Amino acid sequence: MRYQKVLMLAFALLLVNLKRSNGTDGFETDRGVGAELESVLNIPLSKPTLVHLLSNATKKIVVNISDSTTVGVTAQAQTQFQNVTISLLKVLHLSSSYSGSSAGLVVPLKQGAVQAHFYITSAENVTACVTAVPYSAHDPVPGACNLEFHLENDPNLHLRDTFYETVTQFAPANLGAERDADPPVCDVEMGTKSRWRLTYDFYQYFLPENDLSEQSLFEGVVKMTSVQDVEKHGTKIAVLTSGEKTLLFGNSYTDIGGIYSLIVRDPLLNTSAAYIPVSTYSCSQSSESPHYCYRYGQVSTQIFFSLLGIYGLFICFAGHRFLEAEFLFIGFLLFGFLSFVLLKRFSQISAHLCLVFTAVVGLLGGAVLALCRCRFGATIFLVLLAGLAFGFLLSAVIFFTPLVNVKVFRSEPLFWVCFVSMALVLPVILLSFTKALNILSCAVLGSYAGICLVGAFLPTSLVYILLDVVRRAVEPSYSRAIIPVPFQTTDYVLVASWALLAAGGVASQCFLTRNKPPFSQCPYESWREKRDACSERSPLLGPEEHVDVLS
Description:
By secondary structure, this protein is of the alpha+beta class. The chain has helices at 2-38, 214-222, 227-233, 299-318, 323-346, 351-376, 379-398, 412-430, 434-455, 464-474, 489-512, 523-533, 543-550, and strands at residues 40-43, 49-53, 59-64, 70-78, 84-87, 97-100, 102-108, 115-121, 126-136, 157-161, 165-170, 199-206, 235-241, 247-251, 258-266, 271-274, 278-280. The protein folds into 2 domains: 41-185 and 193-293, Sandwich (Immunoglobulin-like); 297-528, no CATH class. InterPro entries: TM7S3/TM198-like_dom, TM7SF3.
C-alpha cells in the first residue's frame, strides 16, 4: 500500500509537470490575449456608445475608418459627475490627454491609416458616452490653434460656473489639412487664407427640468454631438468672429441642466465642425455628493417664499378690500428688494443672514406704509408705490425676453434708464384710474408671489424674472452674460396659472368692493368721526329721546 501511494503521488507530480511544460505558456498567452481583448473596444464612427469603465483600468477605443477623405476624428467621452481621462497615448502625458466630465481630443490620421484609436480611463467605476466624429481636410479643426491650454489641439469647451454666470472658454480653430501635411500657420497672416476667416456659433440645449438622471444627460449629449444635431436641437445664443475674445458669458440656472456646444464655420469653403459639448447643472457636481443638485433651494428660502406666496395669494384675491394688508405687502416687496440688493452689493454676509435682514427690513417698511394708510390715508401716494412695484415687475418681464441680449443693453446706464422708464409708464398712465391700478397691482404681484412659492420647490425659470434683475443690480459684470430662457412644460403651465390667478384676483376684488367707494375711509379718520360724534358737546340724549321725555 505504501508503494502504491508513492507511485500514485509520483504519477500525479508527473502529470502536473507535463501540464506546466506543455500548457503554461499557451494559457498565459491566452489570458493575456483575452485581457487585451477585453480592454479594447471597437465603436462605430459618429455613433455614441456607452462604455463602462472600471476604476484605474485603461480601455483602448478603436474606430474603423472606411472613407479615405477622413483625415482625423474628434473623440469625446461624457459622464455626468465623475472625471474621465481621454488620451492619445496609453501612458498619460499632459500634452496628449485631457480630464473632465466632458473630455475630448483631436485624433489625426496618418497616410494609409484605416483605424483611429485613443485611450480612456477613470479613477472610479463610471459609465461614459463615447463618440468619434470624423472631419475632412476641408473642415476646420476645432482647437488646433491652441496657445493657452496644455493640449496641442484642444477641442474642449472649458466651463466655469459662478453664482451669477457660466463662463465658457475655448481655443481657436485652424484650417484643415491633408493627412501628414503641415497645418496652416495660425498667427502669421490675418487674411482670408488664414484661420481668421473662421466664425464661431454658440449653441445651448436645456435638459428637461427636474430631471437630473444620467440617461437624460446622455440623451442630451447625443443631440449636441455632430454639427447637424446641434443645428437641429440646439438654440443659437451667440456668434463670434475670430477677432473677438474666445469667451462666452451665460446665465447660471441652478438645477436646470444645460449643454453648451460650439460650431466653427469656414465661410469660404462652406464647411463646419463641432467642438466637444460640455454640460453643467450650475451646482455642485462631484462623485462624493452627486445628489446635491436634487436639493432645490434651502429650507430658509422655502419657508420665506412659502409665507410670502400664501400672503401674496391673499392680496391677489382680496388686496383692494383690505388696504392696510395690501400696503404691508407692497412695502415688504419694495423695502425688502432694496435691502437685499444693497446687502449683496456692498457686504459679504451669507445668503441666510441676507434673507433674514431682508425679511426684517421688508416687514418694517411694510409696517410704515400700513401705518401711513391708517393715520394719513395718502391714497394716491400709496397706490403710486403699488403701481411702481407693478411696473417694475412688468419691466422685468419685458427684459426677460431676448430683448435683453441686444448689444445696446450691455451698457449699464442705458439698461437702467430704459428699465426705469418702462417701470414708470404703466403707473403714470393709470394713475388717474387709481382703483383699476390698485386692483391690477394686487392681482399681478400677489399671483406672482404664488408662482414664486411653487418655484421654491420645483425648478422653473419664472423665478429668474426678478432674479436676473437682482443679479444685474448686484454684479455689474453680469451685463455681459447671454441670457437664454429655458422655457419648458412646467414654465408654460405656470405662466397659464399666473394669468388665471391674476384674472381671478381682479374679478374677486371687483366683487368684494362692489357698491362701495373706490377706497375705504382712512381708519384714523373713521375713529375721529366716531369720537367727535360722541364728544361732550353733543347732547346726552338724541332728538327722539328728548321729545319722549317732554311728552
